[in-house]
Amino acid sequence: MIPSQFEYHRPADMAGALAVLAEHGDDARVLAGGHSLIPMMKLRMADVPHLIDLQDIEALKGIKIAGGQITIGAMTTQHELIADTALHAAAPIIREASLQIADPQVRYMGTIGGNVANGDPGNDMPGLMQCLDAQFTLEGAEGKRTVPARDFYEAAYMTERDDEEILTQISFAVQQGGYAYEKQKRKIGDYATAACAVSITKENGTVTAASVAMTNLSDTPVFSEAANAVLVGTSCDTADIKAAVAAALEDIDPTEDNRGPVAFKKHVAGIIIKRAIERAASRA
Ligand SMILES: Cc1cc2nc3c(=O)[nH]c(=O)nc-3n(C[C@H](O)[C@H](O)[C@H](O)COP(=O)(O)OP(=O)(O)OC[C@H]3O[C@@H](n4cnc5c(N)ncnc54)[C@H](O)[C@@H]3O)c2cc1C
Predict the structure, then answer these.
(1) Per CATH, is 7-52 categorized as 3.30.43.10?
(2) Which residue in 152, 202, 249, 266 has a CA-CA distance of 20 to 30 Å to 216?
(3) Which residue is closest in CA terms to ligand 1's atom 5?
(4) Mutation test of ligand 1: which of 41, 94, 101, 112 has the most ligand atoms closer than 8 Å to its C-beta?
């Protein structure tokens, strides 16, 4: 299908992008890689009279690692996340998760900013960012503010971002301990039936910190405080993992769709969460 008519803007810097947003308000949307927004426009599920392409804004690109912090520009593509060796050394879960998103063609275009700003419960990065306790920087006419990923998602496609703000960067600490990103999908290129990001730190065989977050098992990503609490202080043996999985399953609220009924999704979630915790613990 062909989208309805729109005016195309291509600002060279943030000031230009914010000016178009301020002028057109609700009638304007920013365009990153376009692999979620353009299909929505073609299906006429999104009507965007003013499209603001961010691709010329250099300030939104790149990966920086300094002082134990990783900062990723919103326009950094999923392919760039996978290819960056310094990022892989500092936070290997990013490559592990990114390789499970869609296919190479989508990853060459799709950006980390578009993936987290979109608010689609099926996107993999929002859950991952909760696991990493990432901070999102938003910039608007009033200036900049930072919102924790764990507070950003309100409902499907609804986030804490104001219409006139642009997500500029994502930051989180260099990763410690073990990690795993597990995803079940119907076929290559599909969104998750269930996915889970886990990070576990151990000292002398005891879990000192755990972070379990899930994708596409509710209308927002789910960060399971309960599962984390079960794991901390344990040796993460079979019984501990079983208890953590049970706690995580209490936090999800999947809905029936073309990936299956609720009971099936809960069953798949249980397997995926267990595998993710086991693998993260084995690497911790
Ligand atoms: C066939 C196919 C399979 C896919 N499978 C997966 C999958 O398995 N897992 C997955 O996670 N994703 C999947 N995707 C989505 C893909 O990863 C998208 O690229 C991603 O969700 C959105 O990123 P984008 O850069 O394309 O954003 P766009 O489509 O350009 O934008 C998406 C939304 O975010 C807003 N936005 C974008 N950037 C910003 C910003 N900096 N500030 C504020 N708002 C912004 C836009 O206005 C728009 O509303 C798939 C896509 C396709 C086409």
Answers:
(1) yes
(2) 202
(3) 102
(4) 101
Nearest to 114 by CA among 221, 29, 178: 29
* Contact call for residues 246 and 266 (beta carbons, < 8 A): no
Span(s) in the chain for CATH 3.30.43.10: 7-52
Percent of the chain with pLDDT over 90: 96
Task: Report how far residue 244's alpha carbon sits from residue 95's, in angstroms, rounded to the nearest whole number.
Answer: 25
**Residue 68, both tokens:** 């134990």
Report angle CA 152, 158, 164 to the nearest 5 degrees: 85
What CATH architecture applies to the domain 178-283? 2-Layer Sandwich (3.30)
94 contacts 177 by C-beta, under 8 angstroms:
no
Ligand 1 contact via 159 beta carbon (within 6 Å): no
Task: Dihedral sign for Cα 66, 68, 73, 76, please.
Answer: positive
Q: Is the pLDDT of residue 1 over 90?
A: no
What is the separation of C-alpha 76 from the centre of its chain, rounded to a whole number of angstroms?
13
Spatial distance between the Cα atoms of 155 and 121, rounded to a whole number of angstroms: 8
Q: What is the CATH number of domain 60-173?
A: 3.30.465.10
State whether residue 53 is helix, strand or coil: strand
> From the CA of 115, how far away is ligand 1's center (Å)?
4
For ligand 1, atom 11: residue with the closest CA: 123
- Secondary structure of residue 267 in the 3-state scheme: helix
* Residue 134 confidence (pLDDT) above 90: yes
